[in-house]
Specification:
Helix 12 links the parallel strand 10 and strand 11. The model has no long low-confidence stretch (mean pLDDT about 95). About 40% of the residues lie in helices and about 15% in strands. The protein has 3 domains: about 130 residues, 3-Layer(aba) Sandwich (Rossmann fold), CATH 3.40.50.10800; about 120 residues, Rossmann fold (3-Layer(aba) Sandwich); about 80 residues, NadA-like (Rossmann fold). The strands form 3 sheets. It has a 5-stranded parallel β-sheet, with helices on both faces. It has a 4-stranded parallel β-sheet with strand order 2-1-3-4, with helices on both faces. The chain is built from 16 helices and 13 strands. The protein has about 375 residues and is an alpha/beta fold. Helix 1 runs parallel beside helix 15. Bound molecules: 1,3-dihydroxyacetonephosphate and iron/sulfur cluster (SF4). The site of iron/sulfur cluster has 13 residues, from loops.
């Protein structure tokens, strides 16, 4: 059953703000001890260290959605990530067959701070995608387009893909997803991250000239001509990650000049000129695996979110690890999840007055599941 209007919290957030991290850590640990396996705290790799230390499981976007899909014993999920991740966890943990197995019980999925959104996800609204689809239909046959949404998107966009024979991808499986799409249709509409779409499709041999960018705020046809649309293979939505777009080609050149022999390792959300100049690329999960497996003395400049790079530096003193930018590139929204919010949400959960429950409406969840399950059925790149 969906949750009725939530009761008022037992404990106000303001009470937690003055507490020290040590005190908060202790109190969070106490709730974890009491709840045991009934509580699952998931943490994305970009979270701050204090939060990661208290997560039961950590992962990249693909791993976290797999964990939510597989969750069996828990009675509540607290998601230390951003809004779209908590939505995905709710959709997968509360599939109708799972709820039926639990005798009708839903697992509440809690986002400790509702303001933890994603600026990239906000760059594609469902109304914009629908009107793009309608406009495209006036020029080409939409039956020959597979819509692909990066998991960093609202549930409504995932549902759009479910309804239109499309699919979800993450940075771990974007190539496999594009292979799947091209086996079905001639074209792909890829949203919201133009960089992941472009970097992946180019590596597969799609020429840039066949990847027009759709500007949702632009003129007709997203600022493209009918000819460009007819000639397209991948239509790229004009969205980006505000963190990864800050890495530049000049940063890569500077590191190569100053540190001969250094290897550049970047996330595929980085712009094309950075991606092209790098030695290696991959999702956050893959970046971690590459560093874990590298021999002592390896030298790296890594282009992804600051907290993860700093953690890798700390965990691998036997390697020389640099952050691939002189400026701070951190995910400000992910950073909103701090120990005060985590403790506040856990103690209210334990008191029977859970706060910040993310619940996707059943119709959206149904269609989003269709697109998510297509993705979960395939292997990573
Ligand atoms: P991955 O978790 O797929 O590496 O994506 C990084 C990211 O930006 C998450 O918001
Ligand atoms: Fe969104 Fe970028 Fe933050 Fe990921 S790192 S949550 S894509 S803003």
């Amino acid at each position: 059953m969906p949750l009725a209007t939530a009761p008022a919290p037992t404990y106000p957030l303001a009470d937690y703000k003055p507490l020290s991290n040590e005190a908060l850590h202790e109190r969070i640990a106490a709730v974890r001890r009491d709840w045991g396996k009934r509580l699952l705290i998931l943490g994305h790799h970009y979270q701050q260290d204090e939060v990661i230390a208290l997560a039961d499981l950590r992962g990249d976007s693909l791993q976290l959605s797999q964990m939510a899909a597989a969750s069996e014993d828990c009675q509540a999920i607290v998601f230390c990530g951003v809004h779209f991740m908590a939505e995905t966890a709710d959709i997968l943990a509360n599939r109708p067959e799972k709820v039926a197995e639990r005798g009708g019980e839903r697992i509440p999925v809690i986002l400790p701070d509702m303001a933890a959104g994603c600026s990239m996800a906000d760059m594609a609204a469902i109304e914009q995608v629908e009107s793009c689809w309608d406009e495209l239909g006036e020029v080409i046959d939409t039956a020959d387009i597979t819509p692909v949404t990066y998991i960093n998107s609202a549930a409504s966009l995932k549902a759009f893909c479910g309804k239109h024979d499309g699919i979800v991808c993450t940075s771990s499986n974007a190539k496999a997803v594009l292979d799947w799409a091209f086996a079905r249709t001639k074209r792909v509409l890829f949203f919201p991250d133009q960089h992941l779409g472009r970097n992946t499709a180019r590596a597969m041999g799609v020429p840039l000239a066949q990847m027009p960018v759709w500007n949702p705020h632009g003129d007709e046809l997203g600022g493209n001509t009918e000819e460009q649309i007819r000639d397209s293979r991948v239509l790229l939505w004009q969205g980006h990650c505000s963190v990864h777009q800050m890495f530049t080609r000049a940063h890569v050149d500077l590191f190569r000049e100053k540190h001969p022999g250094i290897k550049i390792l970047v996330h595929p959300e980085c712009p094309m000129e950075v991606f092209d100049a790098a030695d290696l690329s991959g999702s956050t999960g893959k970046i971690i695996r590459i560093i874990d497996e590298a021999p002592p003395g390896s030298k790296w400049a890594i282009g992804t979110e600051l907290h993860l790079v700093n953690r890798l530096k700390h965990e691998h003193p036997e390697q020389e690890i640099h952050f691939l930018s002189p400026v701070v590139c951190m995910c400000a929204t992910m950073y909103r999840i701090d120990l005060a919010h985590l403790c506040w949400s856990l103690e209210n959960l334990a008191a029977g007055t859970p706060v910040n429950i993310i619940e996707v409406d059943p119709d959206t969840a149904h269609w989003a599941t269709v697109a998510l399950e297509r993705m979960l059925a395939m292997k990573a790149n």
